[in-house]
Design goal:
The complex is a heterodimer. Chain A has eleven helices and twelve strands. Chain A is α/β, with parallel strands linked by helices. Chain B: It is found in: Cell membrane.
Chain lengths: 332, 332
């Protein structure tokens, strides 16, 4: 895997939040690579740092209290032309052109992701006109075309609707239309289907896959739902407390889960075959993010714990197969 | 939208009728009337016997219709208002009540609207500054000053300002709206300058509390809106921070400020009564106070009615403005 073949290459990213109660290491040494046209799934429980990773790439971490303390986020496939997003001024024109224009992001809650006082058309047009030199009329035509493309019926009428006049699924489609209106290279989707009901979830995922092929963009799919990962992703990063525990292709991840955390997660998914068994669950709860843990972060909840796991030494990242990495003492 | 406006205006009519009844009843509640005072004056100062003075006063009661029952008096009063615009006779000023009100209402409205406009604009700007510079020195300073501005009673501020002007800055004349030598002069440049020298005092005093209030409300709301998803979406589109702030955040933080406009007008008209007495201003406040003390029934009732009309109109306007900026209200 050459550096220059990656659209985005995150190296050793650390994003900390300096709160009154202490430092929260929301993202602590994360490495990620996404190639053009590929989908990377990022999966983990609430508070594991998935969204903070995404917001760090977008340079939208609220500061204060948040700050990117270390690492690189290299954007661009060409080694000479790639830029480290961390070194850009987060409010400067260079970052603003990338944000929304080349890297777009959609969020979890379609009900509150659109500004209630403007029509969806206004909001899509605004997005187009920031990044492209077009007249308002052309932008509106493009907006209608995008709405049509994401499967909103009667788009010429709907373009003048306010967000509260659309259903949740429709709003998420409108948000996708808005995010893709500038043909970004990378779409970061932060739990895009979590707030939708199941049938709509499937439709939206299907739509995203279609659009990915059409526009040739990469997707970073953030979710806590392993089903969504299986459905969409090429590669997967499993996160726990700000660190990546396992990194593999989706196929390897589901067929040969390595990390005890991932194994436990997969066991805790209810299955429709097999009868009357008690559902397995992971013992304990996610530790307080303010608590200072050393060594393996999962050790207190791990069923396969060894002596070394309780030491203060951090487990190494082991490449067990090509492209399949796991951060666990069991494989050292 | 038009049907919404018409519906809102139609609601106002029964409301005003009900309010006028309440006003009239409240004014009539204390025992006796203006003529009771005249009666004792006739006895003590004109030296008439008890029988003579009662006879004279009874005749006057008949002339002014004060011998009739309360509902009949109300009907006559309201009939004259609706058909002739006649608010009845002020015993205290010995002229029609509407004349007393109009000549004072002009100055009241000029002072109230200026104070209101300034307090809204300045309050909003400081509030926006405070919210965008949360926990900075400027934020702490304006929060502290707002606290002081809200806690000082207005009449006390008025006394302090008058004291400082007279004893520190040796201003020859304070109070009222012009110096004695200009009272009868026709309007010219010198009179205008003199007027401004008097005018700013009530405006600043009535404005200070409003500035403090608007600033606090705006700061709190804007901070809330800043955390909302659609503001993050707007940033993720790559918009300039200025556009995110004014186009997406401020518009959604204005609701309580606009809703307050409806109540603010009568509050400023009537609420600065004590200040107006301290500063000896020719506004409605002191006249209303006198009318209540001397049981100048119809004048007091007319004042009350006037204030409620201002309140109702203010509320109507603020509702219409809200419906104009927020589509969700229009479709209710």
């Amino acid at each position: 895997m050459e550096t220059n073949s990656c659209l985005i290459n995150v190296k050793g990213l650390c994003t900390y939040f300096y709160t009154d109660d202490g430092i929260v290491k929301a993202v602590d040494g994360v490495n990620l690579k996404i190639r053009r046209g590929e989908t990377l799934g990022v999966v983990g429980e609430s508070g594991c740092g998935k969204s903070v990773t995404a917001l760090s790439i977008m340079r939208l971490i609220p500061a204060p209290p948040g700050r990117i303390t270390r690492g690189e986020i290299l954007y661009g496939e060409n080694k000479e032309k790639s830029v480290d997003l961390i070194r850009l001024d987060s409010r400067g024109s260079k970052m603003r052109n990338i944000r929304g224009g080349e890297i777009a992001m959609i969020f979890q809650e379609p009900m509150i992701s659109l500004n209630p006082v403007y029509t969806i058309g206004d909001q899509i047009i605004e997005s187009i006109m920031v990044h492209q030199k077009v007249t308002k009329k052309e932008a509106k035509e493009h907006a209608i075309k995008m709405l049509d493309r994401v499967g909103i019926s009667d788009p010429a009428q709907r373009v003048d609707d306010y967000p509260h006049q659309l259903s949740g699924g429709m709003r998420q489609r409108a948000i996708i239309a808005m995010a893709l209106s500038c043909h970004p290279n990378l779409l970061i989707a932060d739990e895009p289907t979590t707030a939708l009901d199941v049938t709509v979830q499937a439709q939206v995922l299907e739509l995203m896959k279609e659009l990915q092929q059409e526009f040739g963009m990469a997707i970073m799919m953030i979710t806590h739902n392993l089903g969504v990962i299986a459905e969409t992703s090429d590669n997967v990063a499993v996160m726990y407390l700000g660190k990546i525990m396992e990194y593999a292709s989706a196929h390897d991840l589901f067929h040969h889960p390595m990390h005890p955390y991932l194994q436990a997660l997969l066991k805790s998914i209810p299955s429709i075959v097999g009868k009357g068994e008690r559902l397995a669950m992971i013992k304990g709860t996610v530790p307080d993010p303010l608590s200072i843990l050393r060594g393996c972060l999962f050790a207190p909840r791990c069923l396969e714990i060894k002596k070394i796991c309780q030491s203060e030494e951090e487990p190494p990242v082991i490449e067990v197969e090509k492209g399949h990495q796991v951060k666990c003492w069991l494989y050292a | 939208m038009i049907s919404y406006i018409i519906r809102r205006i139609l609601y106002v009519i029964p409301l005003l009728l009900a309010v006028s009844i309440v006003c009239f009843v409240i004014i009539q509640l204390p025992p006796g009337d203006f003529l009771t005072a005249i009666e004792s004056q006739l006895k003590s100062q004109a030296g008439l016997s008890e029988e003579e003075s009662r006879k004279m006063v009874d005749e006057m009661r008949k002339t002014y219709g004060l011998d009739k029952s309360m509902p009949v008096q109300y009907l006559i009063w309201i009939k004259n208002i609706v058909t002739k615009g006649d608010f009845g006779y002020s015993f205290g000023y010995r002229k029609p009540a509407q004349e007393v009100i109009w000549e004072r209402l002009k100055w009241t409205m000029i002072i109230a609207l200026s104070a209101h406009l300034i307090s809204t604009l300045v309050g909003l700007l400081i509030g926006i500054y405070s919210a965008t510079h949360q926990y900075s020195l400027g934020d702490h300073l304006s929060t502290f000053l707002a606290f002081i501005g809200l806690s000082f009673p207005e009449f006390f501020t008025a006394l302090v300002i008058m004291y400082l002007l007279v004893f520190r800055f040796r201003v020859p004349h304070v109070g009222g709206l012009s110096s004695p030598e200009y009272v009868l002069a026709t309007w010219n440049w010198a009179k205008f300058v003199d007027f401004l020298q008097h005018f700013w005092i009530p405006v600043v005093i009535s404005g200070v509390a409003g500035v403090a209030r608007n600033m606090r409300v705006m700061r709190a709301n804007l901070l809330d809106v800043f955390r909302s998803q659609y503001v993050i979406t707007a940033r993720a589109k790559g918009l300039k921070e200025r556009i995110v702030l004014y186009k997406h955040a401020v518009v959604n933080a204005l609701h309580p400020i606009i809703a307050y406009q409806g109540v603010a007008l009568p509050y400023i008209v009537q609420g600065t009564m004590v200040t107006a007495i301290v500063l000896n201003l020719p506004t409605t406040g002191p006249a209303f106070y006198d009318a209540l003390v001397f049981q100048d029934t119809l004048l007091a009732g007319s004042f009350l009615l006037m204030v409620t009309v201002v309140l109702v109109i203010g509320n109507l306007l603020s509702d219409l403005i809200l419906a104009w900026i927020d589509p969700r209200i229009r479709y209710d």
